[in-house]
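ARCHIVE CARD
CATEGORY: sequence design from structure
SOURCE FIELD: tokenized fold
FIELD CONTENT:
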């Protein structure tokens, strides 16, 4: 049988180069980010008939979310998914902001052991 005290040591070891840690955002910043994402998703659902308008809305939304939340890598896949025709009716911006709020964003572990 293995020693149960060795198990926590194995759980502490990290094999990857990135760690996902939740970031601490104020309630106001998160509320503002969710409001921007929600308004954009509602407008984007109706702007699906005119793709250039939908793309402009998505670029403005990404810029506003970068201002509110700072540089978050998870916003870039949201921008790409919103640009795919037909997928604009899904609430990707709300999902991305929710993922950032709950999970954080990958951060490189440089010089940490």
């Amino acid at each position: 049988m293995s020693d149960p005290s060795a198990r926590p040591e194995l759980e502490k070891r990290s094999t990857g180069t990135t760690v996902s840690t939740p970031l601490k955002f104020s309630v106001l910043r998160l509320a503002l980010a969710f409001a921007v994402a929600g308004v954009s998703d509602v407008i984007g659902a109706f702007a699906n008939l005119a793709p250039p308008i939908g793309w402009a809305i998505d670029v403005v939304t990404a810029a506003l979310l970068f201002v509110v939340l700072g540089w978050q890598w998870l916003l870039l896949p949201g921008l790409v998914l919103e640009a795919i025709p037909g997928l604009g009716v899904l609430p990707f911006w709300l999902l991305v902001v929710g993922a950032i709020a709950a999970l954080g964003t990958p951060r490189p572990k440089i010089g940490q052991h």
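CARD ANNOTATION: Residues 12 and 72 are 26 Å apart (CA to CA). Residues 6-17 have pLDDT under 50 and may be disordered.
SHELF: design records, drawer C
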